User: Fold this.
Amino acid sequence: MGTAGSRPGTTSRLPAECPPLRLRARYPGGPGGEGLGLPALLRPAMGQAGARYDVIGMDPRFVGRSTPLDCGWPVGPPMRWTGPSRADFDRQVALQKDLADKCRATNAPALPHISTRNTARDMDVIREALGERKISYLGYSYGTYLGTVYTQMFPGRYDRVVLDGALDPRRYNPRVVRGSESANGQALADWAGWAAKRHGTYGLGRTRDQVLATVDHVVETSARRPLTVGTAPDVFLLDATVVPLVIFAGTGSDTDAARAELSEHLSVLARAADGQPTELSGEFAGLLRSQITSQGSRSGSAQTAILCGDVPASRDPEQYWKDIERSRAAHPLFGPLTNTIVPCAFWDRPREQPTQVRHDAPALIVAATGDPRVPYSGSVALRGLLPSTRLLTLRGADQHTLYATYHNACVDAKVNAYLITGKLPAEDQTCVKPDGH
Assistant:
């Protein structure tokens, strides 16, 4: 399965402390996420379940240490905000075409072999190489799509399956975050209320509306002139193609730590918008390097190649422009980002048809009602496609991915009970976010 110079997937293995119950694979999402170091991070949250499993982390083909793809791009993930004018959009079309052409020129032999279906095949090669009759699987975000594809391609070769932050496989496509605008808008408003209570720390406004007005001021100013942030050697010019992406990156979690980080970033941007000097934390500088410099080329290349290799994208720029303009009216900040044109519009067509869900598969689907990355409706839809699944819902959280990442005791306990017993609950389950979490 390791075509075009790739390995079928590089793995790490954390053995069970007692005789293993089943092999357990874990994929972190992305697409293009690395997984080798994740078993050690996962084991503590598994409680008693952790001692019963061999936990396997995998870098999929062309990711991380598994012969990584690098298109030599000057930027990281290519998703960019589209400004209000047609000239802004035309510049994005030219950029995305250039990125696609550059990747094809440097990696043409590899690109046809990059897809979720091939990653699923690699997973099965690893299962066989490790001498396991079945695997159990935990997938986050895009990893839920990979897990769903595996169940359809290899029925009978899996045991316990947990799909956290699940995608509707029928809506999976190169613009994978399209449809998340409302959830991101709500998450941003909830964050603004949190930040308003801490005006003394961040200076963004004393009410939610004032904080949101500061966000608008930052975006509007960046559309007129790039914001200069940082001090040498980390000085960045952030225009309106990038600033909304920074905001979007901060809405994926409602933990205090995540909200504090977004508040710090917006405080820097607000000062820059007012022409004041700014200093960047190491974390913020790293985020910007990964998004707008060549340091993010590998992650952006792998993510894009997988999405483009799975589902064909529209090749008509006019369709993207219409989608952007239609979404802009209701979602002026996030709509022009989630509907933007991507390199897949200029990519070679996928070699295989997208996977269709034709077989039922028992699994535990885990989701938060306010998930800002994958709308909760995606988990509900997957629940309907796979009648034997059960849906574990966390209400009241603006959070993407839950098990072992959000530290909600109710969610972790219910997932661990399933991993220990192998028995899905008789009906769908609900947990509630505690006040103050």
About this structure: Residues 86-107 form the longest helix (22 residues). The CA atoms of residues 177 and 316 lie 19 Å apart. Residues 1-8 have pLDDT under 50 and may be disordered. Residues 10-67+115-174+353-432 form a domain with the Rossmann fold fold (CATH 3.40.50.1820).
